[in-house]
Amino acid sequence: MSTKVVGRGGIALSFGGNLLGRTFPLPSFTLRFEFSDGSYSPLNSTWSKGSWTKVQGSATNRWDWTYENTNWLNAFENKFTNENNLVKVVESNTTGVLKTFGLFDGCTAITDACYMDVSATTDTRYMFRHCTSLRTSGVSYTRHAVDISYMYDGCTSLEVAPYLNTSEVIEALAVFRNCTSIRSVPLLNLPVVVNVDGLFYNCINVETGALDLFNHLFPRGDDMVHVTTFYNCGSNTEAGRTELAQIRADWKRRE
Question: How far apart are CA 99 and CA 147, in angstroms?
């Protein structure tokens, strides 16, 4: 476990990470954040869930948020929105968390999110929705997720669509809708899905992958909702337009 002591002003100091050559694991049910504003303290804000501890010995402004509860529903919804204080999620210990619905919904100042194990949750809807500054998101271990709808909806800066474990997913509505910076569509494994409507809707800068995913899903087309799955997908790139032209019209309608 990370060691904590109380510093000046009653601020808890976390020794997680590397201290004097020794590596300490991040505590359970904890996320480590890095803030670009070196003077920022989350203790000056109101939080409905969790507690904060300052990471000691870090060259950057890092804080650990710990919430020893399995329900992280909307924990940071619309919290990180100051473009002058960009935020990174740099470490996580999320094993056992059951609810991540809307976890970072509307956090427009988050730029990067590390790997997260959310294998215990069945619902990751809206987890990063409208995180418009999010460039990278580590692969989230979503082994038991049933509904991943809108998970990255509107993440306009996201450069790579994470390859999620989707073997048990039933609902995949608008997962990457309006992710206008991604260049490739991953070949998601969706053996039991019933709704992929809007999955890559308006992902205009895609160059490859859309046709492969369509060919993978098409044999089961009668068993799923798919009308707007590839609407406008790749329309801004020559390679993308070539693939889009080969996808059936009833998979790429606007609505």
Answer: 12
